[in-house]
Amino acid sequence: MSAAAGVADLSPVSRAREQKAWYFYDWANSAFATTVAGVLFGPYLIAVAESAAVDDRVSVLGLQVAPGALPAFVITTSTVISAVVLPLLGAVADRTARKKDMLAGFAWAGAFFAALLFFMSGDSWQLGALAFIAANLCFGASAVVNDAILPLISTEEERDAVSSRGWAYGYAGGGLLLALNFVLVSFHATFGLTEGMAVRISLLSAAVWWAGFTFIPWRGLRNHPPQDVEQVEGGVFARSFGQLWETLKDLRNYPMALTFLLAYLFFNDGIQTVISQASVYGVEELGFDTGTVLATYLLVQFVAVFGALLFGRAAGRVGAKRTILVGLVIWMLIVTAALFVPAGQIVPFLALGVAIGIVLGGTQALARSYFSLFIPRGKEAEYFSFYHAMDRGTSWFGTLLFGVVYTLTDSYRPAIFALIVFFVVGGVLLLRVDTERGIREAGNTAPSVV
After folding, report:
1. Which helix (H) or strand (E) segment is 63 a member of?
2. Neighbours of 130 (CB within 10 A)
């Protein structure tokens, strides 16, 4: 027996160690996604802008805007910038071995800008708007790099389970901090705080949480050298632009990846719109107070932990594509049930929240790992930048349809039911994805269950 033959293969141990560290970035950045972007930033920005408003209007680049519309404009601005910038950042990330350093750098920069939200008080809504745009851009950039690391630390066989555990960590971490902040804001007087100060401390806590827990993946991940990148001339940025151009030309050689991206565009837009409009539906249509809706939001967060793990196990048995399709059918049932949920009845509303939690984390986690199978080696960050750019650059389709239907019907019930079209179209397109062909086109190894 040769010496080489007697050496144990330690790569699974090394991958497992990196995977455990990688999970904690989802745990870290979900604090921003839930406490800041999901719950507190929008209402607090409106409140601060109202104190600066003249005749119920504030000036934005010379335009007179109602304070209540500011969060939508701020988020739209941030998503449009992200859609343009992220593909370029993805090209840069693919050309460097220092992906974990890029991940941490974007995370800490995002946390810095998020911390500036603590100083949004009085009438300084402009500071809050600019800080959120910068933080959200860094959030998206770090997500691109984080997702690109997934194929580097997991085999095709492991990927669904690893991605699902990451999402589970995210919902657990984001939900835990949100629960603590819910107590602080709801019982602010008990702590000797004004409501505004309690909100500002909560916003700051999300920044500290994001920055602090990012140290775990930064210390625990290794820097992996780039593989099979395009050979183009110039410095890192010139080469990155060159690689982006080569990838755009080469995309036609990966039709299954393109088909999945189109399917994801639709069904993810439906998911994001349901989540963003659920609180409006609960308060305005069903008559619940904000505290009840926030408590339901927390319920969704914690159920999503188990939902992500459940979907990961299911994918190991029947494949990611079939599991995602089952999830989309459940989403169709959810928006259909929303037509008939009686106003003021908490149990049916909570049941809807549980159903959303079960499929929310699962469909998103598996979409990430499933798409990774179609990415040629050396272009992980770039392809995931397209993935996130489509997510952010088109996320207004669902809210537009929701708003139009509400305007025509004066009811949120048909407005939320109309979102079924996104799940139907996304599901039909997903059915057209030939998983084995897509894996073959990318030059990857097919998992035992596809």
Report:
1. strand 63-65
2. 15
Residue 10: helix, strand or coil by DSSP?
A: coil
Contact (CB, 8 A) for 107 and 142? yes
Phi, psi of 60 (to 5 degrees): -125, 105
Alpha helix ranges (H) inside 59-124? 70-94, 99-115
Tokens coding 45: 């920005």
The answer to whether residue 450 is domain-embedded is no
DSSP SS3 for 58: strand
pLDDT digits (tens, 9 = 90+) for 294-348: 788 888 888 999 999 999 999 999 999 999 999 999 999 999 999 999 998 999 9
DSSP one-letter string for 212-270: HHTHHHHHHPPPPPP-S-----SSHHHHHHHHHHHHHHHGGG-HHHHHHHHHHHHHHHH
Angle at 71 between CA 69 and CA 76, to 5 degrees: 100
**Largest Cα–Cα distance of the chain, in whole Å?**
86
Per the domain annotation, does 372 fall within a domain? yes
Q: For the segment 37-73, what is each residue's pLDDT rounded down to a tens digit?
A: 878 888 888 888 888 877 778 877 777 877 876 777 7
- Report phi then psi at 89, rounded to 5: -65, -35
Q: How many structural domains comprise the chain? A: 1
**Residue 3 confidence (pLDDT):** 44
**At 308, which CATH number?**
1.20.1250.20
pTM across the whole model: 0.83
Could you give phi then psi for residue 287, rounded to 5 degrees? 80, 20
